[in-house]
Every structure is written in structure tokens, then in C-alpha cells.
Amino acid sequence: MFGLIDHQPPEVEKQMHKLFEQVNVILGRVMTLSLDDLKREGGQGATEYGLVIGFVVLVIALTVGGLGTAIGSFLGRVSTKLNGITLP
Asked: pTM above 0.85?
């Protein structure tokens, strides 16, 4: 199709053609960007909120993971000490 390999299955050729079209569209948009397009701040609010939420989720996950390990270790030590106690 593109002169690379002549004997590709039809579904691979369709995928390659679709990829080629997508790359053409992306390159066309990049080539027509102007300085005013880059200065626009319209969509930045949602992006910034998304980044903040992602960062908060990451911090919570790391904190819970760290606390979970610490709590498990603490309960293991308590269990060991309780098992060592003999009742009269």
C-alpha cells in the first residue's frame, strides 16, 4: 500500500491507512497553529483540575499503602506479644 511491503493482509492495510490519515490530520493542525492559539487559556482550567485531582489521588494511594504496611507491622508485633503472655 505505502510501498513498504506489498503483501499485507487487508485489515493491516486498513489500519495503516487509518493511521496515515490520523497522522496527516495531526500534522495539518500543528502546521496551522498560530501564536494566538498558543496563548489561549480557555481549556486550561479543566486540565489543571484534572492534574490536581490526579496528584491528590496519587498522594492518598501512597499514604494508604504506607500506612497499611505500618499498621500491619504494628498488629503483627502486638500479636506476637499477646501470644507470649501466659495466663495464671
From this structure: no
